[in-house]
Write a structure and sequence with these properties.
The protein is mainly alpha-helical. Helices cover 44% and strands 8% of the residues. The chain has helices at residues 8-13, 32-45, 48-61; strands at 19-21, 26-28. A hairpin with a 4-residue loop joins strand 1 (19-21) and strand 2. Helix 2 runs antiparallel to helix 3 (48-61). It starts with 7 loop residues before the first helix and ends in a 16-residue tail after the last helix.
């Protein structure tokens, strides 16, 4: 189960390495669930530069996120 990081106390316990934007301590990515959430949030509210940095940080920490799984097909609208 993912840790609740909405509490400031819990966020402060995380090292800077656990954030996609460590200088600002934004977009925590301690696990895959939070990494996926960070990608979704930055897509909604982040600047293009932040989006690029968050995507790179998530890809570096969790290379399997964003890759298609075997047998997975493209979604069509």
């Amino acid at each position: 189960m993912a840790k609740d990081l909405s509490d400031t106390k819990n966020r402060k316990k995380l090292s800077k390495k656990m954030f996609a934007l460590p200088g600002k301590r934004k977009y925590p990515i301690p696990d895959k669930a939070h990494a996926r959430n960070a990608l979704a949030r930055v897509a909604q509210k982040g600047t293009p530069a932040e989006q690029k940095k968050v995507k790179a940080a998530v890809k570096k920490r969790f290379p399997s996120i964003g890759k298609k799984q075997k047998g997975e097909k493209d979604k069509k609208s």
